[in-house]
Write a structure and sequence with these properties.
The complex is a heterodimer of chains A (254) and B (382). With 254 residues, chain A is α/β, with parallel strands linked by helices. Chain A is built from 7 helices and 10 strands. In chain A, the strands form 2 sheets. A 6-stranded mixed beta sheet of chain A has the order 6-7-8-3-9-10, with helices on both faces. A 4-stranded antiparallel beta sheet of chain A has the order 2-1-4-5, sandwiched between helices. In chain A, strand 1 and strand 2 form a beta hairpin. In chain A, helix 5 packs across helix 6. The longest helix of chain A has 18 residues. Chain B is an alpha+beta fold and 382 residues long. Chain B is 51% helix and 17% strand. In chain B, the strands form 2 sheets. Chain B has a 9-stranded mixed beta sheet. In chain B, a hairpin with a 6-residue loop joins strand 3 and strand 4. The two termini of chain B are 31 Å apart. The chains are: A alpha/beta (254), B alpha+beta (382). The interface between A and B is medium-sized, with 29 and 24 residues.
């Protein structure tokens, strides 16, 4: 099973970059990242090399403090990378300005540990907020698409509910609808199942996987939850800021 | 249409919105009261000026306002008849008398005007019907809008009683009523004939008057008449057009007293109270929604969206808070007008002024509150 070790992955990457980069969503080379200044300066990520391909479901695991979330926020354009190279959708984020980062974010769907829905908006309005960023979509279409996606996550009956009247699993499903409604090229999810029981956690992840497959988008899930590892095409493990494992996983039909 | 997040966010927590609106309404009410009293002061001080049916007015240069006049010779007034545009003139006597409340027997200072009843130039309700009574000796007309402390004169007259009382220890009869209203100059007013006036105040010299009113021939040029009068009359009288006469009185209250300053200060305090209240509301609102804003920033919303959001909330609060402030102020005006006999009423002008002040107030608070927005960092929510 463990046929892909680090060096083989290295080789894969070299081959990929010498071919075309068209099916690469993220391409990271020699990425280091530091927190703090002066004497308190601490290195969080060490020489990260990672490629995410179109349509892949990747699980990023590792102990607390290993740098998973930092890596995620760097890929999502939420934090400015400092050195090395970080290409997202073919755009270099090292040295990019705020505006470029904002443009990158608009092509990414985010799913948070806590659903982070807007309390004053209904489920439908929360989903619409994501579409309203894209100025070329008509108002009537925005509403239709929001409702259609809420129906596909099984919340057709709850489109006008406020978050406080939804269960944890339902809220996370609204968050998934919000992340996917604008057809992002990539979805970044941080511990999406942490606040859910095992049944709804499982449902949520499978839903993500299914919708992503339909839309052909890449999903990166950061998780501790070993029960959901089987949904991934690839598992990447991070420890003390270094990638210690990057393993393809044979597809399992359940 | 975009989702109106500012509106939805404000209306989501009804209790907090109500408290916010109460606070803004209170600040608005304060501003309304201060501006209202200020306007009432100026308005009440010129109600009489406006009622004089004259075109040009003569006063001593040493007079400050109608309640404090220096006498000058009526010869100056008659000299003006030589100017060809002048049609007629009327001399006016003013003095404060001591009025005895006919029921409670207490005395109070009352503003007394004396002039020839045959040449009435006072356009006030009630004068036309009652002016002839002033030809009787020691008859006066009483201002029914005087403060209640002068006695229930109107009620007594309505019961067909003859009201007899004393002014400065001289017996007088109230021959009728007219309507003028209390002002900061006088709590109450009476009118009598020039002859009666000199009987009431024996120390006043006939021919030394407080105000001269000049009426011009119809269709004559006011500017030309003013120039001619200025050339004709010596420097010991001041010559005013009606507009100048009114403006002079308002300028007196604005500058020579602290009243204008006090009410402006009061309005300013209302403004500051409102600014602090709105700042508290907007700051708390931003602080409570930081995680949500960070989420929106992660999705690709830019800083300007949130700045616009805070200012939209500020304007919504301003407009919504203005409504109860306006309603309460209108009620308080009616209450205060009843209690003080001052011409206090809501005007469109003042409503617009306070609304604009409220919007400025909310935007000032908003511009301080937006600084909190920088705390919404999308990297922190993962």
């Amino acid at each position: 099973m463990l046929f892909t070790d680090l060096s083989v992955n290295y080789l894969n990457q070299k081959m990929n970059s010498s071919q075309s980069t068209i099916n690469q969503v993220v391409n990271i080379k020699n990425l280091d990242h530091f927190f703090g200044e002066g004497k308190l300066k601490k290195q969080i990520l060490f020489d990260i090399n990672l490629t995410l391909n179109t349509g892949e479901v990747i699980i990023l695991k590792g102990p607390s403090g290993s740098g998973k979330t930092t890596l995620l926020t760097l890929m999502g354009g939420l934090r400015s990378p400092q050195s090395g190279s970080l290409l997202v959708f073919g755009e270099e984020l090292v040295g990019a300005n705020k505006n470029q980062l904002v443009q990158i974010r608009r092509n990414i769907g985010y799913i948070f540990q806590d659903h982070n829905l807007l309390a004053s908006l209904t489920a439908r309005q929360n989903v619409q907020m994501s579409l309203e960023l894209h100025h070329n979509i008509k108002t009537s279409e925005i509403e239709q698409r929001a409702i259609a996606l809420l129906e596909s996550v099984g919340l057709g009956e709850h489109i006008n509910y406020h978050p406080q009247n939804l269960s944890g699993g339902q809220k996370q499903r609204v968050a998934i609808a919000r992340a996917l409604v604008s057809h992002p090229k990539m979805v970044l999810a941080d511990e999406p199942t942490a606040a859910l029981d095992s049944k709804s956690g499982r449902d949520v992840v499978e839903l993500m996987q299914q919708l992503a497959r339909e839309q052909g988008c890449t999903i990166l899930i950061v998780t501790h939850d070993n029960r959901i590892l089987d949904v991934a095409d690839r598992i990447v493990e991070l420890e003390d800021g270094k990638i210690t494992l990057d393993r393809e996983q044979p597809a399992i039909d359940n | 249409m975009k989702t109106p997040l500012s509106w939805l966010q404000l209306t989501h927590e009804k209790a907090r919105l109500l408290i916010a609106l109460a606070g803004i309404g209170f600040a608005d009410m304060l501003m309304f009261l201060q501006l209202g009293f200020q306007a009432a002061l100026f308005e009440s001080s010129v109600t009489l000026h406006k009622a004089f049916e004259g075109d040009i007015f003569l006063m001593s240069p040493q007079s400050d306002y109608l309640g404090f006049t220096k006498q000058f010779s009526q010869r100056r007034l008659y000299e003006s008849l030589a100017v060809e545009q002048v049609e007629s003139v009327i001399p006016m006597y003013f003095n404060y008398g001591s009025w005895k409340n006919p029921v409670e027997r207490s005395t109070r200072t009352i503003f007394t005007m004396g002039f020839n009843p045959d040449k009435n130039m006072l356009d006030l309700p009630g004068i036309e019907q009652n002016i002839d009574r002033l030809k009787l000796p020691d008859y006066v007309l009483f201002d029914e809008l005087s403060r209640a402390e002068f006695g229930p004169i109107a009620d007594l007259l309505q019961q067909n009683q003859t009201v007899k009382t004393e002014i400065s220890s001289r017996k007088v009869t109230v021959g009728g009523l007219f309507s003028l209203g209390a002002s900061f100059t006088a709590d109450g007013n009476i009118i009598t004939s020039d002859t009666n006036f000199l009987r009431l105040f024996p120390d006043r010299q006939p021919g030394l008057i407080d105000l001269g009113i000049i009426r011009l021939k119809p269709g004559t040029n006011l500017e030309l008449a003013l120039v001619n009068l200025n050339n004709k009359l010596p420097q010991d009288v001041e010559i005013f057009s009606k507009a100048e006469f009114i403006q002079e009185e308002i300028a007196y209250w604005q500058n020579a007293t602290a009243i204008g300053f006090i009410f402006t200060l009061g309005t300013g305090i209302g403004f500051i109270v409102g600014t602090v209240i709105v700042y508290q509301i907007l700051y708390t609102d931003v602080a409570n929604h930081l995680a949500e804003y960070a989420t929106l920033k992660a999705m690709g919303y830019q800083d300007r969206y949130f700045i616009a959001l805070v200012f939209q909330e500020a304007v919504i609060l301003a407009v919504l808070g203005f409504i109860p402030g306006y309603a309460i102020a209108t009620g308080l005006y009616a209450l205060a007008a009843g209690a003080t006999a001052l011409p206090l009423a809501m005007t469109m002008n003042r409503a617009a002024t306070v609304l604009i002040l409220t919007i400025i107030m909310c935007c000032v608070s908003g511009s301080i509150a937006v600084r909190k927005l920088s705390a919404a960092d999308p990297a922190d929510i993962f």
